[in-house]
Amino acid sequence: MRRRRVFQETLGRARVCPSLTACVLSLCVCACACGVLLGDKMRSAPDRIITPGILARIATEAIAGMAVAPPNGQRMGAVLGATAAVGAAYVSFGMRQRAIRKNGQTSTGLIEDTIANVE
């Protein structure tokens, strides 16, 4: 319950993107998350470092950075979020490629999603 309250307070601080709290956005994010969960298991899934993938990561993490930054630091929050997204994409891509060579696509995707969702 406390985690939900902190999350809502964080989203409430987002002055640049007030629509972050909209129900429609929540549904879109949920649909995207489901797509990622399913897409990672497909052998035909593109690499996460292709241009559209990187651009999507930059956009979403810039918004996340703005959402958690204080009102007077949202621009820096966006820059830090976008930078972290690019760095994490390339580091995780290298790790995933090594894991796929050793364990295969499907099992690697399942393990990656399990690790990402453990709290």
Can you tell me about this structure?
The protein is globular and about 45 Å long. The model has no long low-confidence stretch (mean pLDDT 77). The chain has one domain. The chain is 75% helix and 0% strand. It starts with a helix and ends with a helix. It is built from five helices and no strands. Helix 3 crosses helix 4 and helix 4 packs antiparallel against helix 5. The protein has 119 residues and is an all-alpha fold.
Give structural attributes.
single chain; 119 residues; mainly alpha; 5 helices; globular
Question: Could you give a quick summary of the protein structure above?
Answer:
With 119 residues, the chain is mainly alpha-helical. 75% of the residues lie in helices and 0% in strands.
